[in-house]
């Protein structure tokens, strides 16, 4: 049977609009982020969710809690879908990276398969741990379940690139905005397929 994997990017924090790298910093949602999470909860209202897994970052857990409110569904924190460890980049803005770490930042954006963040993780290593986590979920829930995972933009993107058989260097090909939903369905009669990407609307329009 199929499994629907619903990938949610956490809602906005105060650091997102100013493009400051968060990494593992314990930063929570701002008011816009809470509203984005509530929008997701509303759009998912008619969709039965069997389990919710979440990154261990506070911004992801808060998003998961808002989505889960009023449901009898367990939230399971899972470090396999935690944010990338951005090491020396944490606290810097994208502009800072362009000015002070131009070569590494360019490689991260356009040659991600070759990139290890100074003091942090390699992008290929992040993809491996995230895909290993999804494979573990598939083995446990491949029986018609709908499993929601709250994670982070580039973690979601490396997962999707893997299952779309696209190179890791295409990291910037996919959009994944705060409070968005992407859906990947495993095990259909036509094989595995992407159902939605960076989606902001009633989920009943795309899922039974």
Helix content: 25-40%
Biggest sheet strand order reads 3-2-4-1-5-6
Low-pLDDT runs: none
Q: What CATH architecture do you see?
A: 3-Layer(aba) Sandwich
CATH topology: Rossmann fold
Quote the beta fraction.
Answer: 15-25%
Structural class determined from secondary elements: alpha/beta
Mind telling me the CATH superfamily name? Phosphoglycerate mutase-like
| H/I helix tally | 6
CATH class: Alpha Beta
- What is the H-and-E element order? EHEHEHHHEHEE
Compute the separation of the termini in Å.
14 Å
> Which value, in Å, is the CA radius of gyration?
16 Å
- The average pLDDT score comes to 97
State the domain count. 1
Quick one: overall form? globular
Main β sheet profile: 6 strands, mixed
Q: Report the strand count.
A: 6
